[in-house]
What we know:
Elements: E1 22-29, E2 37-41, H1 49-56, E3 59-61, E4 64-68, E5 74-77, H2 79-92, H3 100-113, E6 125-134, E7 146-156, E8 166-172, H4 193-204, E9 209-213, E10 221-224, E11 228-233, E12 236-240, H5 250-261, E13 265-269, E14 281-286, E15 290-299, E16 302-305, H6 313-326, E17 336-338
Parallel strand pairs: 8-9, 8-15, 12-13
Antiparallel strand pairs: 1-2, 1-7, 3-6, 4-5, 4-6, 5-17, 6-7, 9-10, 11-12, 11-14, 14-15, 15-16
Helix pairs in contact: 2-3, 5-6
Amino acid sequence: EDEEYADVDWDNLGFSHVRSDYMFTAKSSSEANFEQGYLSRYGNIELNPAAVILNYGQGIIEGMKAYRGEDGRVLLFRPELNAMRMKIGAERMCMHSPSVQHFIEGVKQTVIANRRLVPPPGKGSLYLRPLLFGSGASLSVAPALEYTFLVFGSPVQNYFKEGTAALNLYVEEVVPRAYIGGTGGIKAITNYSPVLEAMRSAKSRGFSDVLYLDAETGKNIEEVSGSNIFLVKGNTIVTPATNGTILGGITRKSVIEIALDLGYKVEERSVAVEELKEAREVFCTGTATGVASVGSITFQNTRTEYKVGDASVTQELRSVLVGIQTGSIQDTKDWVLEIA
């Protein structure tokens, strides 16, 4: 295992599961914390995070990536934000959680142990899944007696290899929620079921993803299935505010800061669905997508198309973000953690 890269077809990586070498595990009871953790080989284990949650009933999942720079360094992008988001979500769900330091240490150990599975520069990234779930027996809705923190990963290709492929979205007007107001700041798998059903329906009709309206009024856009959404109007970029119903994405936060640095005005507010017709560009942000162009949005059988391509605001923001993540642009904000 001393070779620089694993025996993987990096040019045709795709998004199918590629088993990495090790995963990190730590456990905690009500009287302990997550100080102790260990790396273990995957062996023949196939780990499905959704199945883990269904079996144990309570869990939170994060998504993040490790990149390899042109100089061979392995980099993590803003891991402390994922750590803080898991910690806040755990508190809301009455779960024990690792500290920010322990979270980052577990992720670092996982990436270092799987270094040969971090793709070459420009070929993709190691997609990481930090997972926290209740692993002890419990009665009814009582908190679990023990919690397990796992970090595992799999190499994936760049979501949009050429940078200009665009999403075509369908606006879903009726989506049942786990409760009124949505899931808030918790990335809990058990709240994904109605989203998955809406996605399945949209994709069967040729759409690539779903844009949801707010659950309370049904008049404002909220978010795409696993991504935040932005509208470009001249020099102004508009995005729905994270007011308790929308998960504050880490890529979202980063792109807003980049846009402000580039001289754009950014408005975080309620965005009426009618404003989709006024936008020149629309894009989505998320861990998997990065910054993804939206080519069209269909609402009530009316299709609105948007500008995509290299000479777009979307591409400008994407280029800066990717440059920082991979170390080709100077990281003046200390967003990137070099780990190997």
